Batch of 4 targets.
Target 1
Amino acid sequence: MRDPLSVLTDAFTSFLFGKVETTRLPVRTSTGQAQAVYLPTAAPGLGDSGVIIGREVYSGKGYIYDPFQLYGQQLPAPHWLVLGESGNGKSALEKTYVLRQLRFRDRQVVVLDAQGEDGVGEWNLIAQELGITPIRLDPMVANDSGIRLNPLDPSITTTGQLALLRTIIEVAMGHGLDERSGFALKVAHAHVVEHTTHRQPILTDIVERLRHPEAESAESMNVDIDDVRAWGLDVALVLDRLVDGDLRGMFDGPTTVGIDLDAPLIVFDLSHIDRNSIAMPILMAIVGVWLEHTWIRPDRKKRIFLVEEAWHIINSPFVAQLFQRLLKFGRRLGLSFVAVVHHLSDVVDGAAAKEAAAILKMASTRTIYAQKADEARNTGRVLGLPRWAVEIIPTLTPGIAVWDVNGNVQVVKHLITERERPLVYTDRAMTEASVRDPELEWETEQRAILVEQQMNGSSQSTVA
């Protein structure tokens, strides 16, 4: 029971100011009518400048993404990690994203195409449509008319050449070079660079100098010439594999003349290389360093470096270190690195866990397609995803993914136009898009026109 003083105070206040509180009577209504009371809400998008990915599932809004527009404002880094099991649409997303980015005049894309059938890579049809000839690395034809990339190309600095040689050897040996072997390699490389002036130095020159070191190289360190020869023997045997072994012909000669590094799309076709062999990380290391010194330039172009089967990079400590430097260096020059991986456990539990964590940290955009529940929980823990996102990942259908753009997490439906469909869903690509989704058909020309109008009307972006 209220005390008399409170009752008197309330009565006096009501007399002066009117009734303080308004009592609302309950209203009986239906859920349909209550929609006007509880209005729907949706998470904010990423802006309206860039390329269309599709639509946000819960709100139906168009989802637009461009790392170059977002960099420095909503993104601390323009790099992107794509995860998911086969058959859920990673391949379709990669291809449409590249095709739509190429609609901008200041874009260039390099793709390391590690998958393929029928003797060509998965990106072969897109390359043909754009009038591009893929750079096909194939040890079976390299000695005849194949493509060569020279690790000792003069366009690569001498420091870069030596770092690349060390990486090739360490990847092949499975451990780092000791001081003695590193010294033998350094003096052999220095001698070859200094005395080969009438042509490009090649790996055969390095192997020859390791087998027959110069006396002055031993004298400079006050060691016996036979010791220097012994220290370089294992190194010579590893490099001999690229000269006269199963990787012969691709890297043991001058760089092939005519490789067009100014083309809008550059495709390195690695589909003829065994993906489970040590050759793949060696190839990716050579291609990565070669591109670093020949392709990335301060010309204000925005470059995208897309790597399929990227676990070959992230799972090797030595290759990961090279690419980690490339990512840090390229970010200043407008490079967006896109790594496509099936399972996060392929990299975070491997030999290069420390290097993998560093690369994953630089990927401010993460796209996760359907995974099994255990893998989804592990992915959510490593990437710091909210619980609701982790719970729906195992239930996602093909074409739908969780997008985490620097903490902005949304569920996005990827959409494809009819003009893109023949280039995206090739017979080879259908292995990753075997489940047809009616919402991905886009049979109405109106939607295709809308996408093209948006892409044509987008303003040119700059890197902050």
Note: Residues 428-464 have pLDDT under 50 and may be disordered.
Target 2
Amino acid sequence: MNFQEIISQLETTKESRLHYYFVTEEQNQEIYALLVHVMGYMDKLYLVEVVFTVLKELLMNANKANAKRDYFLREKLDIQNPNDYIKGMERFQENIILRWNEQLAHLDGGNYYIGLLIKVDGNSIHFAVENNAPITQEELARINKRIEVAKNYNDLADAFSDVSDSQESAGLGIVLIQLLLKNSGIGSDKFRIHTNDKLTRATLSVPDVTSAVEITTTLKTKVLNEIEGLPPLPHSLTKVIQLCNNPDADLNMISAEIEKNPSLAADLLKLSNSAFFANRSQVNSILQAIKVVGLKNLRNLLYVSGVRKIMDGQYGKMQDVWEHSNRCSYYARFLATDHLHGNKIADTIAVSALLHDIGKFVLLSVDRAFFKKIETYQRGSDSGNSTLLEEMSIGLSHPQLGGLLAEKWEFPSDLRVAIEYHHKPFMAPVDLRDLVEIIYMANMMCDFQEQKKGFYAIDKNLLAKFNLDSLEIFSEKVKKVETLYKKSNG
């Protein structure tokens, strides 16, 4: 896919069309990367996740519709005949959905196609997904029912417990589209499905001006109250942080304050003697340790120490979150040094990665079962940004909550930005984007290792930037870093 060629088409003829027989996860990855280009060009980057989620759902539905028709033809069944339709659908789950990887071979080069059209009109963007198969009455009834059902929900939380579709796994799809468009400010009326005796066409128009709807849920209120009720960082730590922020700080005074806190002193000595600071001789004193790691790294260590003390005290040891964060921190430091950043920002990156998921502690504490339900829904899939489901269900995502916590505890701007944008690096301020991109990639590598995400869920542009733009290369890199991580943890 030539992004610049498509942008050029949009600039000159105002439209571009892509043609598929079957949209694979790799092609979805390319479409996401294309949207980052196109939506950025149209100054609508903030809507990338919403538009991609809608388009991916529509493309998947088109895949299923074409696969179904191909299957009916192979079985010599008339899809328009009610009796044949019932007969075919009895085996649809077993022969199509559970054998999804085989469908590309059936459809590639065949009679059925899928088209993706992008059209620019002033400052508005129009998308269309079409496939050359008319909707049956049964399918149309199911779609209309979903659209009607969606009107009853204000957020995705209600839909999770209420919507299912045993026949074609379409359950949340149409409902999700309606909620995304309504709450993003695009408007559910900007989505239409048309059909005739030759094709089915779903259209989405993104207007020039959108006004997002603020989602208010009981869960959101509980989460915000939880943040409000969290204590400030311990005074003993903030006192040292203030000293670290003073360019004229007396290192002996800082050393004396740290020595009053045995656990902090032990952490500092451990850090100063770690391989990342590569000292020839053992560091034995706090003053020497401060000189080795530097005031900025010391300050970051204080934030980590304070956050762990508060989170473990409030919520117990959520070991799964900390284990992921520790892994992410190691991966992030590896990426930073591997891509010639050296120690310039490597230590800030390691701390940012360690704290990137602090918003999850609050979500899990308020409703662990529901949050895990969202994770399970997307586990292992090559879906888009999972935080979008959090926003549509709760009104806030865990990176946004992490940003609120970072603000409450007066983190420096680099840590705050890394936490808040680690799922949306393209939205981060330009001067800190390198930092956030490394946190993003480290997080996705960890999710891949932990089987939470697939390779094709990762931003193709950033994979290319990190020289990881093939599944084989990416898998090998993850395997290498994971081996080093396990070795470092004994």
Note: The chain is about 60% helix and 5% strand.
Target 3
Amino acid sequence: MSRTSAPADSTPVEQTPADAPLTHGLKQRHLSMIALGGVIGAGLFVGSGTAIAAAGPSIVLAYALSGALVMLVMRMLGEMSAANPASGSFSVHAERAIGPWAGFTAGWSFWFLLCVAVGLEGIGAAKIMTGWFPGTAEWAWVALFMVVFCVTNLAAVKNFGEFEFWFAALKVAAIVIFLAIGTLAITGLLPGTEAPGTTNLTGHGGFLPSGSEGLIVGLLASVFAYGGLETVTIAAAESEHPVQGVAKAVRTAMWRIGVFYIGSMAVVVTLLPWTDKAVAEKGPYVATLEHLDIPYAGQIMNVVVLVALLSAMNANIYGASRMANSLVARGQGPKALGRISGGVPRIAVLMSSVIGFVCVLLSYWRPNDVFLWLLNMIGAIILVVWIFIAVSQLVLRRRLEREAPEKLVVRMWAYPYLTYAALAGMAAVFVLMAREEGTRNQLYATGALTLALAVAGYVLQRTRKDSREV
């Protein structure tokens, strides 16, 4: 059975004669660094600034709460992926647990999210390049990045692994250096600085300067900053030791989230007044380093943000192509997308890259209607995916305990209570999104997309069932 297919208790796999299995070209060092660096996205370096401006010092609490939710999701996903490694990851698990329509909905919604995200990350990277090279066209930079990463992913999975290994290494190094400098400054050990104490944490309106509303805005912003964690479970299926790789990645997720996200936010709000306009305008990392008179802080962080954006582009093209390939292998998409050559789903790679570039062109041609509509539709997709993960884990855990307990290499904590707690947390985030004017349209647009995909998936499921019965 192909690793991209669902087991026998699911819909039978339909493959074309040209189909061949994906290779296992990712080494353990690749998977380890993908897991380590996948949590560090451009949203952490730049997007967190607006969250701090809204929540003040309570952003640390917001990231801790959302981080706890993400850790539960990763633990659930890790349990299922270690038991059944598949490049379709949660889409395969949803199909096995709930039905083909659920795998269809979770998989194609995530594919759509990744394709649009590729375009957004390309635009962000292009803006940095045009700042360094005034007069150059943004679209040309995006096209260049698209070609580079498309070719990289077309060649072999080990190329993706190598790019991500070094991208992740640079991001991790940047975060570690920032935390080291920040810790020295907080303790007063950095030359030319004095320990700030709790002045910035309790002054300027206190720890909750904007009350619960500010905390809610910060919480919503922080939830969506954790994107990218799912890639490691997709990549694990093409690694040398998928089960061990997933288990290790999941078990280290807690300290990675705690150190990189919560630790960074704590450093920023301890060293800087949250009211400092530079936090939102320049980003919290640049603002903090400039506050400490670190030379060339702005340009150094621009390089780091560029690396984070390019890393995300590379990972999202990879993830989108593997998700599409897995869906096709299970009879839930156009067969052409499932063609594998040299161990790589090359048509899926090309299609995912093209869709990403079309999104970039729409940002120039139709920024106020079509492109805005696309942005709203992807706004809450990650939450939809997390719900599928939690429901799937509830079902599959019972099945594994009954049929194959030896496959439970990774176990969800306090099952089923923490799974239910995570579902309650996701429901709470949906309610908060509905309350906030800035996120309400995203919730509605994502809901419409999810409903349309669920209906299409159910119709496909019924059609295939009827055709088999004839």
Note: The two ends are 26 Å apart (CA to CA).
Target 4
Amino acid sequence: MSQINIEEEVIEGIAGGEFEREPVPSSKLKGWKSFLGMYAGEHAAGTEFMIGPLFLTAGVSAFDLIIGLLLGNLLAVLSWRYLTAEIAVKNRLTLYFQLEKISGKKLVTGYNLANGILFCFLAGSMITVSATAVGVPLNMEMPKLTDTMPNGMTWIVIVLLIGAVISFIAARGYDTVSKAANWMSPIIVVAFMACGLVALNQLGVKSLSDFWNIWGEGSEPFPGQIKYTFWHVVIWSWFANAAMHVGMSDLSVFRFAKKANSGWTTAAGMYVGHYMAWIAAALLYAVYLKTPEAQAFLSNGEAPPVAPGPLANNALGIFGIIAVVLAGWTTANPTIYRAGLAFQAILPKLSTAKVTILAGTIATIAGIFPAFAMKLLGFVALYGFILAPFGAIIVFEHFFAKKYNIIKNYAEFAGIAFNKAVFYAWLISFGLFYVISLKFDVFLSFVTLPAWLLCGILFLLFSKYYQKSSL
């Protein structure tokens, strides 16, 4: 998930530079080509090396994976185009400022804290990814799929060193992060393609039917994993970036777009990264599953490790190791930087460098524990479930405020710091569907859309009540 091209300008704006608290002027707008490269590079990175193999551990079938990803990624693109980009070009405000105008400054502080912590955990999982590559030439024991704690001092030292380097570079500012990502992203995309082609050759694939038969009718999930069906794949891939599209985080990006049609450029990310790269990474794991080592784990009732470093090394040697290190780096670096910005909104007296170091420290500590990476499918689902409903507040106000006679940007209008309508709408929708997920063992991504819709509806109802009683 490296951020490139216009992200430098966008993020610097969020950090306190131009247009942080005002609409982007027409002289600064960008054409669709500016977004194409950004999304293609952003979504072919470290996370993809983990997510692809994890689908196999969930026992997906060929149809579920190939067709499910096609549909799920299409739904994600449509969400970006008709919700995020549509609202972004109308208001041209960052997510943070727009949410503050609706919710109030105190409530946005809570959002920033949650956002920053979740970003740190995501960055930590990518430090884990890079560590699996660095550990290959050291013959380090790789973390198992079911591991939650570090498996030795070598692992801890490697993670600490990688985390320190990433945090230091991120603290130098987004200019450094962005320039590095511009160079690395094409290398990573080529590496994914090469990994997929080499894996196909190692699997003896000579026809479409051979390729289809790699997954066949699917299998039982590995120990500790849940079974993924067609709808698991569709819904999860749709909401893998829920915080960015239905959660409206990418308002901060598309506020620079000349037209809402720039939202279609997200397809480059979805079908390069979340389709080609996921499948290529899954193929690497399919090769590994045929090895005596993997079969030994399975025969003992254990899940074979999902360690991107050894998988890429098996396919591409040293180039594969370098690609995994870079992929983890280009994900963790901007993610730590963004986490720092979220923390800076809470601790404005601290410099950007200091809050970035704080975020990097939290991310590095998280990276020591393999569970964040090994349970990435579940973590990403939780991340979207927590943050997406805040986007519903913006969407429902934008499209329905006039129809239901709701005052837009009510916190700004009434001069309040805490909009109860927003808080209660999020709390009830989150609490209700999280309890349903736990009590009835419902896949969390399945309840993200209902929670999002309920939050938007409750926001309108509570707004009607509170605005009427305060006038």
Note: The chain has one domain: 7-388.
